[in-house]
Design brief:
By secondary structure, the protein is mostly helical. The chain has 22 helices and no strands. The radius of gyration is 21 Å and the shape is elongated. GO terms for molecular function: calcium ion binding; calcium-dependent phospholipid binding; phosphatidylserine binding. This is Annexin A9.
């Protein structure tokens, strides 16, 4: 890791944006005119042939501007824009447009609830959202979740997942992850790597200690712990996770290691998985493009091209069709040569 990469990785996302310019593909529209946008939407919604206008308007605004459009639309029409979108559109296009109109917190809440709805639980989505959001974001998610569904996120996690996976998710939702202090604590790095290397009476790792370290240490500290772990055990920590753990707990630990080492690469892998094989996971595809469009989608595009030898833009173009394709490509923004 270069000095510049080390400095950048230690900054929270907001600071990265301030220092380097947005790493997202969607930015605030400079000549934002909400009245014009509301007028265009008002004309397009009754006309099913004007879906592209809806896509163009909403994908060229950032989320804050979309919220302004929603409020102005309500003032001028006394109607809810999301409800009218649901009446005018359907299927995957409806889902992605509604996702764009929700605030990032409300969208996370919707996706978490959906992941635990019905007979099956979508553990991959639970892991993706809970393990990639900041302490502050997780606190807000839990508050909105409680207000909207009159139940606790933690309670629903317990009822829909099993130990030790549920224990890891609950530990993360406690929001005890430390912030990067900028100080390298070599003694603590050594101690944590030794603890992760310990085996209990049955020659298995001590799960509770793994959960504490993985859920509470800062990303920068964990990266150094993972390096030290390899130095001690002569193997990447991912290999020992696969050796000693199984099921959703194993998958979640691997996700956290991946996110800690390279967050854009993790999302590039998620997008690739959503589009490989015979079927496309449209929901995962839309969620990642929406949720990362103002954060690091440019970086995700770079990692996707680097690893898979094909651009994210062209892969989306070949895997999905119609208005849904147009909307996702608008969020992706451009081809990477």
């Amino acid at each position: 890791m270069t000095v510049i990469q080390e400095m950048l990785s230690s900054l929270p996302i907001a600071d990265k944006v301030g220092a380097w310019g947005t790493l997202g593909t969607v930015r605030a529209q400079k000549n934002f005119d909400p009245d014009t946008d509301v007028e265009k939407l008002g004309e397009s919604l009754p006309n099913t042939g004007s879906r592209q206008t809806i896509i163009d308007v909403l994908t060229n605004l950032n989320n804050e501007q979309r919220q302004d459009v929603m409020r102005l639309y309500k003032e001028q029409t006394q109607q809810d824009l999301i409800e009218n979108i649901k009446k005018a559109l359907s299927g995957d296009l409806e889902n992605v447009i509604v996702g764009l109109l929700k605030t990032p917190i409300a969208y996370d809440v919707q996706e978490l609830k959906s992941a635990m709805k019905g007979l099956g639980t979508d553990e991959a989505t639970l892991t993706e959202i809970i393990c990639t959001r900041s302490n502050e974001r997780l606190k807000e998610i839990q508050n909105i979740y409680r207000e909207q569904f009159k139940s606790e996120l933690e309670t629903n996690i317990i009822s829909d997942t099993s130990e030790p996976y549920s224990g890891l998710l609950l530990a993360i939702t406690k929001c005890k992850r430390e912030k990067d202090s900028g100080i390298i604590d070599y003694l603590r790095i050594e101690q944590d790597s030794q603890i992760l290397s310990e085996l209990g009476p049955k020659k298995t790792p001590i799960v509770s200690k793994w959960i504490t370290i993985i859920a509470e240490r800062s990303p920068r500290h964990l990266r150094r712990v993972f390096d030290k772990y390899k130095e001690i055990n002569f193997v990447d920590i991912e290999e020992d996770i696969k050796k000693h753990f199984k099921g959703d707990f194993e998958k979640a630990l691997l996700v956290i290691v991946s996110i800690t080492k390279n967050t854009p690469l993790y999302f590039a892998d998620r997008l690739h998985s959503a589009m490989k094989g015979t079927g496309t996971n449209e929901k995962t595809l839309a969620r990642i493009l929406i949720s990362r469009s103002e954060i690091d989608l440019l970086s995700i595009r770079v990692e996707f091209r680097k690893k898979y030898g094909k651009s994210l833009y062209s892969t989306i173009k070949s895997e999905v069709k119609g208005d849904f394709q147009s909307c996702l490509l608008a969020l992706c923004r451009a081809e990477d040569i």
